[in-house]
């Protein structure tokens, strides 16, 4: 179980979060919502030791994170909004580097990429892939390495409808296994069988302590049709000519 206890985060002289507390149990998913700059990414990074905590504690299985960092990292996948891929390396080479402990190596990686519609692109430099293809390459880690906890920052960015549905199914399977997921998104996840708890960060409003929980299904209804509008605008590179195709998927 992951727990935030009285978590306070500052960004310079700006209070992002004030005494935030919540738990993430095994078999549970939490979506973090909030305006741009509300502190969603900072919260995720703070939970796994990548951003400084000004006050409060993060607990993993009841113990202080600072004393269990290695135990958490051994069973964690973190996917940031920048994908964490080296542009000059191929999709296959990137995943070899990111998943060094996987058995059967290239066969497992190739199968994961194929599942995500990347067959025939495994040996292309990531710089030649579209934004959606780069996102799919990064998400392939979820298939390659089992992890008890997924921490995903804007995982729906650049995904088309099929990609969004695949991600929803992957999260559902993670919860089936008893794993847990915390993710940020300005977009609602396609419906899954599980209830998703939702945290809304007030950000730079006058009350930075305001964190509301509400029904994910209600969020989905209110945002119907907006799921795939928030693409990042990156341009694909035509592998034959090296020119931009303007493709986002």
Distance between the termini: 35 Å
Report the strand count: 10
Strand order of the largest sheet: 6-7-8-3-9-10
**Model regions low in confidence, pLDDT < 50 over at least 5 residues:** 205-249
Q: What is the level 1 CATH name of the largest domain?
A: Alpha Beta
Strand content: 15-25%
Which structural class matches the secondary elements? alpha/beta
CATH superfamily of the largest domain: P-loop containing nucleotide triphosphate hydrolases
Largest sheet report: 6 strands, mixed
SS element count, helices = 8
| Helix content percent band | 25-40%
Number of domains: 2
Gross geometry: globular
The CATH architecture designation of the largest domain is 3-Layer(aba) Sandwich
> What is the CATH topology descriptor of the largest domain?
Rossmann fold
* Radius of gyration over C-alpha positions, nearest whole angstrom: 18 Å
The topology string of helices and strands comes to EEEHEEHEHHHHEHEEEH
Q: Give the overall average pLDDT.
A: 82
Describe the 3D structure.
It is a single chain. The protein is α/β, with parallel strands linked by helices and 249 residues long. The chain has two domains: 1-75 and 148-236, 3-Layer(aba) Sandwich (Rossmann fold), CATH 3.40.50.300; 86-146. Helix content is 27%, strand content 24%. The chain contains eight helices and ten strands. It has helices spanning 40-47, 69-73, 91-98, 105-115, 131-139, 141-144, 161-176, 216-222, and strands at residues 2-11, 14-24, 29-34, 55-60, 63-64, 76-79, 149-153, 180-184, 196-201, 211-215. The strands form two sheets. It has a six-stranded mixed β-sheet with strand order 6-7-8-3-9-10, with helices on both faces. A four-stranded antiparallel β-sheet has the order 2-1-4-5, with helices on one face. The model is unreliable at 205-249 (pLDDT under 50).
């Amino acid at each position: 179980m992951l727990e935030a206890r009285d978590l306070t985060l500052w960004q310079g002289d700006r209070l992002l979060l004030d005494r935030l507390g919540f738990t993430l149990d095994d078999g549970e998913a939490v979506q973090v919502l909030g305006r741009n700059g509300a502190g969603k990414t900072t919260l995720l990074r703070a939970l796994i030791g990548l951003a400084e905590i000004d006050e409060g504690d993060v607990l993993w299985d009841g113990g202080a994170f600072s004393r269990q960092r290695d135990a958490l990292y051994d069973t964690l996948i973190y996917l940031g909004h920048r994908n964490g891929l080296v542009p000059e390396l191929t999709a296959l080479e990137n995943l070899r580097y990111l998943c060094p402990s996987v058995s059967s190596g290239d066969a497992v990686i190739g199968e994961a990429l194929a599942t995500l519609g990347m067959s025939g692109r495994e040996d292309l430099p990531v710089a030649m892939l579209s934004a959606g293809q780069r996102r799919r390459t990064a998400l392939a880690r979820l298939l390659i390495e089992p992890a008890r906890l997924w921490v995903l920052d804007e995982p729906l960015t650049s995904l088309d409808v099929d990609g969004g549905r695949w991600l929803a199914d992957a999260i559902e399977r993670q919860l089936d296994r008893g794993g847990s997921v915390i993710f940020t998104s300005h977009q609602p996840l396609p419906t899954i069988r599980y209830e998703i708890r939702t945290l809304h960060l007030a950000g730079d409003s006058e009350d930075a302590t305001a964190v509301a929980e509400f029904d994910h299904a209600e969020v989905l209804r209110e945002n119907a049709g907006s799921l795939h509008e928030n693409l990042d605008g990156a341009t694909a590179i035509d592998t034959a000519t090296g020119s931009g195709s303007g493709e986002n998927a």
